[in-house]
Amino acid sequence: AAVVQGRDSADALSMLRPDMDVAAAQPDLPRAALQVAVASLVVPWSAPWPFPVSPVVSPLATPRNLFLQTPCPVATLYRYCRLRNQRRLWEEPMAATVTTDGPKPVLDKPLMRYGRRTLERLAPGAEPAQYRILGISPLTPHIGAEISGVDLSRPLDEATAEELRQALLEWKVIFFRGQTGLEPQHHLDLAAVWGPPEVNPFFPKSETVGVSRLAKDAMAVGNENIWHSDHSFMAAPALGSVLRSVEVPAAGGDTMWADMGAAYDNLSDEMKARVEGLTAVHDWVPSWGSTMTEEQIAHFRESLPPVEHPVVVRHPRSGRKLLYVNEPFTTRIVGLSDAESRELLDELVLQARVPEFQVRFHWEQDSVAIWDNIATQHYAISDYYPQRRVMERIAVAGVPLS
Question: What is the pTM of this model?
Answer without folding.
Answer: 0.74
